[in-house]
Amino acid sequence: MFNDFLEVLKENHFVETPVDVKTFVQSPDYLGQPLLSDIQYEIVEAMSQIYRKEDVIDIMGDIEGTKHFNKYTKNELILQLGKGSGKDFISTVACAYVVYKLLCLKDPAIYYGKPAGDAIDIINVAINAQQAKNVFFKGFKNKIENSPWFAGKYNSKAESIEFEHAITVYSGHSERESHEGLNLLVAVLDEISGFAQDVGTGNDQGKTADNIYKAFRASVDSRFPDLGKVALLSFPRYPGDFISQKYDDVIADKEVITKTHKFTMNPDLPEGAEGNYLEISWDEDTILSYKYPGVFALKRPTWVVNPTRSVDDFKISFFTDLGDAMMRFACVPTFASDAFFKQAEKVRA
């Protein structure tokens, strides 16, 4: 009886209890999307855990809620994923789930200690305006417009979608000035290793990957220091590029498993035919500990992340341009695909 009385006194922040991520993604009442891979679900969970610990426990129970909060409450995600692994799809799903979870709250601004009705912003930053419009925004808008749950809860504009409770999702790009003044809860920097790496104007604050990252990191930290997040998504362009450095810098300890695959170009040729075989190898890390709290890092080839692709789907790419395919799909930039010497290790040997 006394416990029931305490339950009544306890503040309830929700107008609706949010569904779990798999229901949100697959149910026709929400996004109605195909089943994701386990890795894709892990990424979406880490990109969208925006609730306080006590509320996660209320929703999931003490044991599962504590486990979920500790595992997925991240401030920074560093995702080295091969091209075609579904990075843009994952990003649109995660942003939609964040908006959904915000709209399940009575007043999202008050929940985060802001004045009632204060803006909460989410942004995806692409390499250029064309990618921003045709990849992320197109995919995100399509999911929202086809979801029965979001019907009547949003207003679509040219580069943004405004939702109830002053929640806005923006589609930006690296060639534009940073979105100063936004109350950023989540910032996704898409294909950040494709952003400019060097300042060519003599301006130390130019639009390089590092400066763009620092600007959005500072913006999120100043508004939502506990539950805000910055996600970096990219395949590596060359050894030691931006995403590779960020990934290596945050890892304290890891286990590495080397995997291999042997391609057969033409199975109709006699066994042992010269030039008909190609073997590749790549490393898959299991991160045991991080140097910093609140970090989630992952590096995986396309075919490991995307449940609809297999390594043999990329056979032609590996046979015709090994360097480019290793970089793009296997996340192994052992050499620059546009360098004069294509295979640096062979030159050294």
In brief:
With 349 residues, the protein is an alpha/beta fold. The chain is 37% helix and 21% strand.
Task: Domain count, please report it.
Answer: 1
Major sheet: size, sense and barrel closure? 8 strands, mixed
Shape: globular
Taking the alpha carbons of the first and last residues, their distance comes to 78 Å
* Uncertain regions spanning at least 5 consecutive residues: 2-9
Oligomeric composition of the shown chains = single chain
- Rg over CA atoms, rounded to whole Å, is 22 Å
Describe this structure in words.
This protein has a single domain, classed as Rossmann fold. The longest helix has 17 residues. It is built from 14 helices and 10 strands. The N terminus is likely disordered. The N and C termini lie far apart (78 Å). The protein is α/β, with parallel strands linked by helices and 349 residues long. A hairpin with a 3-residue loop joins β4 and β5. The strands form 2 sheets. An 8-stranded mixed β-sheet has the order 3-4-5-2-6-7-1-10, sandwiched between helices. The chain has a two-stranded antiparallel sheet with strand order 8-9. α3 packs across α6, α4 packs across α5 and α6 packs across α8.
